[in-house]
Amino acid sequence: MRPAEDIIIGPYITEKSNEEIANGKYTFKVHPDANKTEIKLAVEKLFQVKVLKVNTVNYKGKVKRLGVHIGKRPDWKKAVVKIDTDPKPETYLTKGGKEVVLNKKYKTSIEEFGVTQ
Length: 117
Prior knowledge:
The protein is α+β, with helices and mostly antiparallel strands and 117 residues long. Helix content is 19%, strand content 37%. The chain has one domain (4-102): Alpha-Beta Plaits (2-Layer Sandwich), CATH 3.30.70.330. It has helices spanning 4-7, 15-20, 36-47, and strands at residues 8-11, 25-30, 51-59, 63-66, 69-72, 76-83, 90-93, 99-102. The strands form 3 sheets. The chain has a 4-stranded antiparallel beta sheet. It has a two-stranded antiparallel ribbon with strand order 4-5. It has 3 helices and 8 strands, in the order H-E-H-E-H-E-E-E-E-E-E.
């Protein structure tokens, strides 16, 4: 299992991804070998949000040419993560039938999204 910092490479900012932020969907460039479960755990750990759904897309690198030199851009992976914008406390029953409320502090948005360094 890779560390969360190695799975999430950075935000992927386009006009469409900025419009989806209002619906709680954030777009990231992720490690090409990462699966949906690893991406979910990494986003939850890094940003303290509750992830509801993860969609991924693999992109093949394009072949580019500059004069006589031919090269290939690297393959990469994009993940669209839907977060819970209205997190509620989790309730469950214990062995004795007693109801327990687990009140975790989740954020409702990712404030660091879009900040470039």
